[in-house]
Specification:
globular; alpha/beta; 26% strand; binds flavin-adenine dinucleotide; eight-stranded mixed sheet; 29% helix; seven-stranded mixed sheet
Length: 545
């Protein structure tokens, strides 16, 4: 057995989408890191996990410089996003919620980015490539974290390689991006409470021209309903023949070899005379839960992604929420390493991200409960007037209740950090927090609104490096006291003047201070008297932080 020791500013544990997104965010800000992954690579198997990157995630990809690559992964632009409810593909229809394809959907006026379909087995390697291209991350596969010791001034981690060698890593900070069973979280003894929902199984299946074998044409999803609730669904994965077939709702873990795949597929087809030429690519049992770590940070260690929170995929918010963690840590860790970030930053990370994780996962659990409810459907398999009535009523009910699942623009965009200790409230009321709708606001704690500055150039493109002070509507305020205050503590701050009256109206104040993650930290019509206090507050060094 060989032993070695390395030093790194940030040790990222876990080479899933969260570990690589964070490493990429750090690298674009010039921060080196070491990323360790226990497997021999990332996304080694065609596992059917996340498939949709919502608009806010795509805005993050825009900052990371990979939005165009994600858009170009090859998911067909004309593929519709419809959901079909039925008893089986050749059983009784129950309802259909149509949603347009990328090609047919106009870009929402609130964002420069479209929602994109990008399966995780494509997204994760795409991220890994982008990380390697930046050249600031020491990526080590076949390295499993086995233990860690945290001190006031750093962390020492022990890793075991695939060959049984040992590596000791001294890091200023360690981020646990090591998934729901996080070794990092367990090493710190951080409670991970919530609710266990069920054990499900997802099969990746392939059928070249599925449209020929069922009457609904191309859909994003086919949900299979029975008198005792939704028992399964098929979701398109790549729009070209790969599908995820999920069996929902077992109280116990299902061993893949105990699964009668043939019988389940026949049940989904619902007509033994129709022979669909499926190929089963793989079978993945998984645990559906809604849990959150009690703290997302300790002294020098932070948790991100599934290590910090889990959610039912009914809504597709697992990865999308996790990318928000990366966006927050992506500026906080460099701020700490460069010395201008204060001791309040990591507590602010928990204060900001934990409520968002709970908001998004609670909504996903609500969706899940609609999926598996079983009222008023005892006759849906009957070819009778009563059966027809129940199917019609059920279709209408699902369309109404699951709109928040299929159209979750508000969930993706409308979260806020207004209660954060490093955000300065201006006392204005928050807009309604609705799952399907989103109202842009520059209220402190919210995402700084998008508007086009010129064709292809968004206000969002002004943010992402250090802090940005927007000076709107031709304000003649002398902002030097604030830039001097920032400069005196090394906090990067640039000033951007925007004369466009419509953008000034959107932002509602003459001065708006936007954080490196594109969230509003403070706004006002003039600078506060205590500019040093403002700078200290937003960099996590203030008395109230
Ligand atoms: C069936 C299913 C469907 C889903 N659908 C969606 C969806 O539609 N939309 C959505 O947003 N999300 C969805 N998700 C959730 C999404 O897949 C997760 O939120 C996402 O993968 C979390 O990424 P992560 O990097 O935090 O964790 P993971 O993807 O679990 O990655 C963790 C990594 O850490 C590594 N690791 C673990 N322990 C160690 C150790 N000790 N040392 C070194 N490395 C270690 C693992 O090997 C792994 O590579 C779905 C999940 C499932 C299961």
């Amino acid at each position: 057995m060989k032993t070695a020791t390395v030093r790194t500013p940030v040790l990222v544990v876990g080479g899933g989408p969260v570990g690589f997104s964070l490493a990429l965010d750090l690298a674009r800000r010039g921060t080196s890191s070491t990323l360790v992954e226990r497997d021999a690579g990332t996304a080694l198997h065609l596992l059917a996990k996340a498939g949709t990157l919502y608009e806010r995630s795509m805005e993050y990809c825009r900052w990371l410089g990979i939005a165009e690559r994600v858009a170009a992964v090859g998911f067909p632009e004309d593929y519709p996003r419809d959901t079909v409810y039925c008893t089986a593909l050749h059983g009784f229809p129950i309802g259909r919620d149509p949603l347009p394809s990328t090609a047919d959907r106009p870009l929402a006026p609130e964002t420069p980015e479209m929602l994109r379909r990008c399966p995780q087995y494509v997204f994760d390697p795409l991220l890994a490539d982008a990380v390697l291209e930046r050249g600031l991350t020491d990526v080590r596969y076949n390295h499993r974290l086995s233990g860690l010791t945290e001190r006031d001034d750093g962390v020492t981690a022990t890793l075991v390689t695939g060959d049984g060698d040992e590596l000791t890593v001294h890091a200023d900070y360690l981020v646990g991006c090591d998934g729901a069973s996080s070794t990092v979280r367990q090493a710190l003894g951080i409670p991970f409470d919530g609710q266990q929902l069920d054990y499900s199984v997802s099969l990746m299946i392939y059928c070249a021209d599925f449209e020929r074998y069922q009457p609904y044409g191309r859909c994003e999803r086919w949900m299979f309903l029975a008198p005792d609730g939704t028992w399964g669904n098929i979701t398109t994965v790549d729009g070209r023949g790969l599908y995820r077939f999920t069996i929902i709702g077992s109280p116990e873990r299902i061993a893949p070899d105990k699964l009668d795949v043939g019988a389940l597929l026949r049940r989904a087809i619902g007509d033994d005379t129709v022979d669909v030429p499926w190929q089963v690519v793989n079978v993945m049992p998984w645990r559906r839960s809604q849990c959150a770590a009690s703290e997302f940070h300790s002294k020098r260690v932070v948790l991100a992604g599934d290590a910090a929170h889990t959610t039912s995929p009914t809504g597709g918010h697992g990865l999308n929420t996790s990318l928000g963690d990366c966006s927050d840590l992506g500026w906080m860790l460099p701020a700490l390493l460069q010395g201008w970030g204060g001791a309040g930053l990591l507590p602010a990370y928990t204060a900001e991200r934990r409520p968002v994780a709970i908001r998004n996962s609670s909504l996903s659990t609500r969706n899940y409960k609609v999926w598996v409810e079983n009222d008023g459907r005892e006759h849906i398999l009957e070819d009778s007037e009563m059966g027809l009535q129940q199917r019609d009523a059920l279709g209408a009910r699902l369309s109404a209740l699951l709109k928040q699942e299929w159209q979750s623009f508000g969930v993706s965009m409308g979260y806020s950090y207004s209660e954060s200790p490093i955000v300065v409230s201006d006392g204005t009321p928050a807009p309604p927090d609705e799952p399907s709708t989103y109202i842009q606001t520059a209220r402190p704690g919210h995402r700084a609104p998008h508007a086009w500055l010129s064709p292809g150039r968004s206000t969002l493109d002004l943010f992402g490096e250090g802090f940005t002070l927007l000076v709107l509507g031709g304000s003649a305020t002398d902002v030097t006291p604030l830039t001097k205050a920032a400069d005196s503590v090394g906090m990067p701050l640039k000033v951007e003047a925007i004369d466009d009256p419509q953008i000034a109206e959107l932002y509602e104040r003459r001065l708006v201070l936007v954080r490196p993650d594109g969230m509003v930290a403070w706004r006002g019509d003039q600078l506060p008297e205590d500019v040093d206090g403002l700078v200290d507050r937003v960099r996590g060094a203030g008395r109230q932080s």
